[in-house]
Specification:
Layout: H1 2-24, E1 26-32, H2 33-37, H3 40-52, E2 55-61, H4 66-71, E3 75-79, H5 80-90, E4 96-101, E5 109-114, H6 121-131, H7 134-141, E6 151-153, H8 170-181, H9 202-206, H10 211-216, E7 228-230, E8 248-250, H11 252-263
Parallel strand pairs: 1-2, 1-3, 7-8
Antiparallel strand pairs: 3-5, 4-5, 4-6
Helix pairs in contact: 8-11
Pfam family, one: Cytochrom_C
Organism: Rhodovulum iodosum
Protein name: Mono/diheme cytochrome c family protein
Amino acid sequence: MRRTLFCGLVCACLGGAGTAAAQERSMTLAADVRLEQTGLLAHLVPRFALKTGIKVTVVAGQADDLAAAAAAADALVAPAAVVGGIHKGAGGPAPRPAFLSEDPSRGGAFAVLVVDGAAQATHAARFADWLTSEIGQRTVAQYTSPAGIRYRPGALALAEPEPAPPSGDADTGQKLAILHCGRCHVVSERNRFAGIGSTPSFAALRAIPDWLRKFQGFYAENPHPSFTQVEGVTDPFDPARPPHIAPVEITPEDLQAIVAYAASIPPKDLGPGVEAR
């Protein structure tokens, strides 16, 4: 009986330690609400989480409310003038240029700030480092909102991106792609009579100029968020809105394997583009 109780206590302690560790790999980001409205944050945050394993909770607010939001956050992304004012009153690390909106009404120049005394300052600093790094700046430059809104890198002057070759096991990726993606897409000759007619095949997707970005972040693009979970990256499904089909549940390693397989597929010849007359 004593041994059973001791084992139970050890398991409880280890379970608590695991929960605490999971909680520690998270941070809160205060951000201008316009970045949420254009979808830029939904583009950036999952990619940072996939790269680092750090989960980011976003608190979006109007410019007038950001000082209060920043006080309870670990990092802040907002117009440079707003960030400068908050930093002047709080001190701590200096803000860094992040990116610029091509539409001045969307906020102009934005900066990122690690909040002085942040509970998760290490993770916040890593987010700021990532956002202002070459990878983060390219991630910003790759984004175009559904309404056509774009942002330009503000920390680095960048040449045309040279995508890094994806890592992962392509053979494993093919099996995973057929299992998970083959319900909607034609993945290869192995399922050429499957899929949904209106859904592009993997070969057709490979012909898109930014195919790598689309494959790496497919889980954040509709309709995938409603039924796709990437372990440690995406939020749990809303209990009030369960998946309408059997969910796709993969790990970051699974995702890299699928991307590696996609890289091995020759792009489909889609013919000449449509010319206006």
